[in-house]
Amino acid sequence: MVSELTAHSIQGVLFDIDDTLVDLETAMGRTLHHIGAETLAHLTEAEWAEYKSLYTRDPHGYYDQFLAGELSFTEQRIHRARHAQAEFLSEPLEGASAARWNKAYEATLPLHFEPYEDVVPVLDELDRLGIPYGAVSNNVHDYQRAKLDKAGLHRVAALVGIDAVGVAKPNAAIYLEGARLLGTDPANTLYVGDNPVVDAQGADAAGLIGIWLDRRGRQDEGFSGHRITSLTDVLRIVQEIR
After folding, report:
1. pLDDT at residue number 29
2. What's the pTM?
């Protein structure tokens, strides 16, 4: 992969946030377990895993409907919870019970925001090398700013949310705004994220260097772009082609 990038000199690095810098999947799972401790106490360990997977995977694409303006942020969250709980509870999540569930979820989720173990060492090295970095996310700026701060990532100062330019990934404008904030040439800017289509291919199409962070080793056969399995691989790319 590195040999294909040698024509570039990396000037900056942009990251996705959720499940790239911040372990959102684990935070969601812990939150669901905490707030469902009473109503879902009858679940077996396997059923808990299935419940959390249904919520985090969002098979009906409710978050995409939020990005399209079809649902509010709270609505997409409750739709996801309702669908996941329908497998295990006879009473649907509606009305006052849905409002209480969402309030508990909002209060609990930030308590579990943590960066992946490879994040801080990578940012330390980028600082040492004098390479600027930032984040581009498919959520609004203030919500993601609070998430980064709760995770101890105040140092990620440059941040672009969907409200900055009025579009979401994979629209080219949102990646380009990230490069503009860094003051880097898009063609010499890495964009690293956990989604091969939205992050890697979307950034490539926008003129950046898209990198798929495949933490789970999925090795999607339909993906032909640049793939890494740890953020530490970003340092290898940067150092080998500077």
Report:
1. 95
2. 0.92
